[in-house]
Amino acid sequence: xxxxxxFSLDSVxxxxxxxxxxxxxxxxxVIAVGVMMISAGPISAFxxxxxTVKMLALSFLVMIGFSxxxxxxxxxxxxxxxxxxxxxxxxxxxxNLQVSKRKGKKTEPVQLRPDLxxxx
Length: 120
Known about the structure:
- The chain has helices at residues 2-7, 9-18, 22-49, 51-72, 79-103.
- By secondary structure, the chain is an all-alpha fold.
- α2 (9-18) runs antiparallel to α3 (22-49), α3 crosses α4 and α4 packs antiparallel against α5.
């Protein structure tokens, strides 16, 4: 619960930047903490079951941190490039999860034509 409250500081900062009403800010924080408390368990279980998702999330954090540092130094990185890279990475991870799910079912490897196979 303490971690949920700490991470909701991001919501506080966003709410302060976007809203002028104190009630709206408080509601944003309460909603953010509620959503985090409800979703923390299922997300944690999913990440524990799929360690590659953890690496993907860490790589997103590194990429976002790098872009923030670059922006701080006056370099502009188009958000489209960042979103495209993230979208492509998520697509690859979804395919990876599907393939790993199939491996548990003992699928046969793809067979090449006999004339194209390498000698054994």
